[in-house]
Amino acid sequence: MIMGAEQPLRSVRRDEQFLLAPPHPAKVALKLWSDHPPLAVVHFPQEYRAQPFAPPRAVYESDQLRVEWQTMNNRQPFYHRNCDVDEISFQVAGERTLMTEQGVIEHRPGEFSRIPRGVAHDNYGRSESHLLFYVPAPVRELGAGIRQSEPLFPPFPGWVPSPWNEAITQCMGARGHDVTVFPIDEQLLLDRVHEETDRIEVLRGRGNRVDWLYGNDQFRLGVVTFDADADADAEVRRYRRNLDADEIHYQISGTRTLVSQRGTVELGPGDFVRIPLGIAYTTVSTGAGEYISLLSRTELPQIAPTDRTAQLVSADQPASVKDHR
Questions:
Q1: First to last CA, the chain
Q2: Pairwise CA distance, residues 101 & 122, whole Å
Q3: Could you give the 3-state DSSP secondary structure of residue 173?
Q4: What are 164-211's pLDDT values in tens digits?
């Protein structure tokens, strides 16, 4: 596959055992290939766990894209305005009020939204967790919205204007890259919605096999829905190999087995995994579920600590996918 294509660039038939097995020993005294580590899984619990407010945890990061995980049971202590990126969020669990100059959104689990570059925003979370994706602007919606941000005062019960700061950041909002921080009139900032004509769209997967929701020429972000594995006993199983993108998966719901040329691993809700460019993989499942798929045209290294790793096929026992159901 190549990014943005609905059909494979080409399909080839393979022997599955050979596809998953290690290479034959080299017959010449040259190092023709390198050893590569198995797939690494990062896990953050989806349910809220009480803790003091802390900055989001970076999971994957490059100079073109960053993926973060955050949990909140409070206000974010400042409004944030990005200089260089659009900021996409996905609500994992709990409730979160997103307050912006383009209106207010009450986020529910399973929903995405995109804050355009240059739009100030703050969050009020209640026992919640969410993902953040920072992508160089501009990003466009590829799917239809289910609703929009709207003027709402107060933005949440008990809100009153109070002394607050605004932080302007570059370098995808990473810590230590603030350009300036200064006090603001919170009421004046939120009143800006009445002068704005643009609104923020709320999107969610529509239950198709693949729903691409956001994209530009460097990335795609969407939701993949899977069901009980229809190919479990078929003679032909389809593997996917991305020729121009790293792929990040985040398991939303359900469980599945990810089988790849970098090992086999069981995935459940809250798991992240990165499949490097050029690595063939497939999913085996006995039930339904969903996961987020992010395609990045540039390498997207893992920053967070590894929770566990995939199991590689041994040289003397090349395993079939059927052994991993």
A1: 25
A2: 10
A3: helix
A4: 999 999 987 777 778 999 999 999 999 999 999 999 999 999 998 999
Q: What is the pLDDT of residues 104-140, one digit of tens each?
A: 999 999 999 999 999 999 999 999 999 999 999 999 9
What distances in angstroms separate CA 13 from CA 1, 16, 19, 187, one per listed residue?
15, 9, 10, 62
Nearest CA to 95 out of 86, 104, 85 is that of: 104
Phi, psi (deg, nearest 5) at residue 16:
-60, -40
Is residue 7 classed as helix, strand or coil in its secondary structure? coil
In angstroms, the Cα distances linking 161 to 57, 285, 323 are: 29, 50, 60
Instruction: Specify whether the CB–CB gap between 88 and 125 falls below 8 A.
Output: no
The answer to whether 123 and 99 have CB atoms below 8 angstroms apart is: yes
Q: How far apart are CA 37 and CA 252, in angstroms?
A: 25
- Say how far apart CA 26 and CA 33 lie, in whole Å: 9
Which tokens belong to 171?
A: 């370098």
Burial tier of 315 (Cβ tally within 10 Å: 0-12, 13-18, 19+): exposed
User: Is the pTM here over 0.70, yes or no?
Assistant: yes
The rounded distance, in Å, linking the Cα atoms of 82 and 274 is 26
Do residues 48 and 129 make contact, with C-beta atoms less than 8 angstroms apart? Answer: yes
> Please, which residues bridge with residue 219 across strands?
216, 296
Q: Are strands 121-136 and 201-203 parallel, antiparallel or unpaired?
A: unpaired
